[in-house]
Design a protein that fits this description.
The chain is α/β, with parallel strands linked by helices. 40% of the residues lie in helices and 20% in strands. The chain has twelve helices and twelve strands. It has helices at residues 3-14, 19-25, 30-44, 61-88, 101-107, 109-118, 131-139, 186-189, 206-213, 227-235, 282-291, 297-306, and strands spanning 49-52, 55-59, 95-99, 124-128, 145-148, 159-166, 168-173, 193-197, 219-224, 240-244, 256-260, 268-274. Strands 4-3-5-12-6 form a five-stranded mixed sheet, sandwiched between helices. β1 and β2 (55-59) form a beta hairpin. α1 (3-14) crosses α2, α1 (3-14) crosses α3 (30-44) and α2 (19-25) packs across α3 (30-44). The model has no long low-confidence stretch (mean pLDDT 89).
Length: 325
């Protein structure tokens, strides 16, 4: 078994089981990739990929396990290279962050500005997506850290560290009837169609839990992953918006009114997710410290060593108070 063969397994899975696309990604030939994958399967005595003729269509159960272990192996290889780069003061690979559109647009700009000002030689990649997409990137070892809030059940294989509390506001146009209610009730909100985050509804998510507990059924007019898209449709009169409070700025949104909703919805906690038992690059730790000053290097190291956690708040020392945004 060779590392190169395992690299081919990862590449084929990443490229939606296209051997030619995997070969192009790795700057090699399609016949060479196919030959090495068959040689690996012959050595192991199991098939790693499902086939339809010569085409790969999926991963076998054994292939899923090999794929997970191969990703782990290459993650550790990267850790070794990062450790050496940090020790020698060399420029290492890009810092890769996966987060939601709201965090990328409203929470990260000031942090990124400060980080790049003190680390001008570091390349920063920000991947935006839904919680499902963020979880997939973390699972495939495509990112160094995840910043997320909703659908935390998707991140059970990560070490989660709490950063800050936040809540929501109700966004309406300035001429909307709800502007006369300083603290609208759930019943008043339920009288109007809603425009909100796609990951806030469905199953047992926040909006369903909150309205359901009050015996109400919200009318969802539209969902989106991007707060600015939600604002656009609120302006068009499609419904009232339920968005993160940090995303409203009176100077930038003069045509909208933000009504408080913290009396209606429970607080949410934004978390950083890290893969456990990994070498934490100096640049990763620097970014974490800028994003959440209370997450000291010792606390982060202890949390990673403890492994995935179901209660992120328990990782904090007694008496620690999370900031609120």
């Amino acid at each position: 078994m060779k590392l190169r063969q395992l690299e081919y397994v990862i590449a084929v899975a990443r490229e939606n089981f296209s051997v030619s696309a995997a070969a192009n990604r790795l700057f090699t030939s399609q016949p060479g990739v196919s030959k090495q994958l068959r040689a690996l399967e012959d050595e192991l005595g199991v098939e790693l990929f499902r086939r339809n003729g010569r085409q790969f269509t999926g991963v076998t159960p054994e292939g899923e396990q090999v794929l997970a272990l191969a990703r782990d192996i290459f993650s550790r290889v990267s850790d070794i290279r990062d450790l050496a780069a940090d020790a020698a003061g060399r420029r290492s690979r890009p810092l890769r962050i996966a987060t939601t559109h709201t965090q990328a647009r409203y929470a990260l700009p000031s942090v990124v500005e400060r980080f790049l000002a003190t680390n001008p030689g570091v390349e920063l990649n920000i991947h935006q997506g839904t919680p499902d997409q963020l979880a997939a990137l973390a699972r495939q070892h495509e990112v160094d850290l995840v910043i997320a809030t909703e659908a935390l059940e998707l991140f059970t294989d990560l070490t989660l560290l709490p950063c800050y509390y936040w809540n929501r506001v109700i966004l309406v146009p300035r001429d909307h009837p709800l502007t006369t209610a300083s603290r609208p009730t759930l019943k008043e909100i339920a009288e109007y169609p809603l425009v909100t985050y796609v990951f806030a509804v469905g199953g047992n998510r926040l909006l369903d839990r909150t309205f359901g507990a009050a015996g109400l059924s919200p009318r969802i007019a539209l969902t989106a992953v991007d707060t600015d898209v939600i604002k656009t449709y609120v302006r068009l009169g499609m419904g009232i918006g339920i968005v993160a409070g940090m995303s409203y700025d009176p100077a930038q949104d003069p045509d909208l009114v933000a009504l408080p909703a913290d009396h209606l919805f429970e607080d949410s906690v934004t978390l950083i997710g890290l893969r456990p038992s990994r070498y934490l690059r100096r640049h990763v730790q620097e970014f974490i410290s800028l994003f959440a000053a209370h997450l000291t290097p010792d606390l982060v190291a202890a949390a990673i060593a403890a492994g995935p956690n179901n209660d992120p708040l328990a990782t904090l020392p007694p008496g620690t108070e999370l900031p609120r945004r």
